[in-house]
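3.2 Worked example (two chains)
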Amino acid sequence: MAGRGATGPTDPRRRRDVGSGVGRALSRLRGSALVDLVLPRECGGCLRPGADWCARCQRALLGLAFEAPARGLLQPGAAPATVQGAAVVEHGGGPWVVPHPAPAGMPPVHAWGIYADPLRAAVSAWKDVGRRDLEAVLAPLLAASVDGALRGAGWADGVVVVVPAPSSRHAVRERGDTPMAALCRAAVAELTDRGGPVLRVAPALRHVRRVEDQSGLGTAERRGNLSGALSVIPLWHSVIGGRRILLVDDVVTTGATFAEGARALRAAGSGSVVGASIAATQRTRG
């Protein structure tokens, strides 16, 4: 009899592990003519064959933006999406999203757009299925959100430390890398020639205890799951001490990750903390 923690060939956890490993391998080979012959490319948003990201998904993606970003991601004449569920406050650089209810200690968080398909599918494929090629789609969105958060906070010069939300140890083992840190670097690289503050990416946060997968948890459970779960790695204390911090995650849902990350950073002596994310979920009061 299989042990309690064992997984069989039909166990969904096993399928996810295998799919993630295969996806990462194919992502490294993507662009090879030989691979395209054997396994044609498919869109990371709709799975249609032919391209890593199709024109149809690109048009749908642009319709999810909370506002027309300065980076020109919206086509001329395209209307920005309206926000449903999450409260959006126009403040300086753009939309600051506020979950309902907002957790204590959550910093102001800027988001590019609504977490709905095809963006939701792209984020899931990029993060969990190994489609790292979709970084080319997501990095400009995160760059626009980072840019908006900086402008909204009034941080026009000096140094800002960009801290990606950390992956759990289990996720790092399963994925084999830390996609959020890589995406932060790609987004910062897009902003290098735009002027403004100097941005330094610092993967300064770590998990200090085991946490459950947030995706299956409710609002209260998410906050309890992350409460006291993060700390600043000692090596990074001198880097974040007294500095302005931009905390980055892919999606803001309940705000639990941003609240806990900001708590850990402040406890380690950071200066002001604001947040940036690619997207915000359409949440109702709960």
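3.2.1 Second chain
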Amino acid sequence: MRRRTAGQWTAWAFLVPIAVYLIVFYAYPLYRNIELSLRHYTVRSFVQGDAPFTGLANYAQVISDATFGPALWHTIVFTLVSLAFQFTIGLALAMFFLKNFRLSATLRALFLVPWLLPLIVSSSTWSWMLNSDSGVVNAVLGAFGVGPVHWLTSPDWSLWSVIIANIWIGIPFNLVVLYSGLQAIDPSIYEAAALDGAVGWNRFWRVTFPLLRPVSAITLLLGLVYTLKVFDIIWIMTKGGPSGSSTTFATWSYRLGFGNLLPAFGPGAAVGNLLIVMALAFGLVYIRLQRRQVAA
């Protein structure tokens, strides 16, 4: 009994650091954000802590704001388009590198560069490349007779500009995870499929893709959660403009809370909580789908 008790205390001792970490860096900030969204905070009340309780008034203010609809639409488009291209291109590259040709490892390492660079560096690089006057992208288009495109200053192009940059940054993550999933597939399965006549696209669709489904699901979920909260890329490249044409929930929340001389802490926190609810909803959908697959 003493040994069992000592073992239990040892196990709890190992759990204490991670528990403290989760409470300090996750639970408390989440509680604080919810508390901010339920009160009317000014700079003075934020310091003194005497903000009046307003209930769901901040949420009602945010939802009725003219920015809510466009920001929600931009968030959805930014997330879904980024995920679709990141996953598709990452899977295609993973299949390509699975052949293990000469210099395969070197090329894979080079594809990891966008993932390893700090976001501020990647975003600044794309801002320079997409500059209307001196950007290399417009220079290449001009060589083919295409007029200059105002990537970052046109309401029609600003959202697509940040989407392109985000796709480029997210491809390496999909490549690494999906490549690992492909390597885990037993080669004997492909041999059996070949005997049954499964080759080329038919083999990929009926053998590879189903076996890769668990890895694909977690890759898409992680990419979804990450893309929903992308802030650095958009803020550095367009700051959500022009005229709010690339504003998402992440940039809107920041602008409300910190981007004005008179910060609106409550509404900013409310927008942030709506973003958390969106990510949580997608996470619950993923868990439900996984349980159905296990039950089947």
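3.3 Remarks
DSSP finds 15 helices and no strands in the chain.
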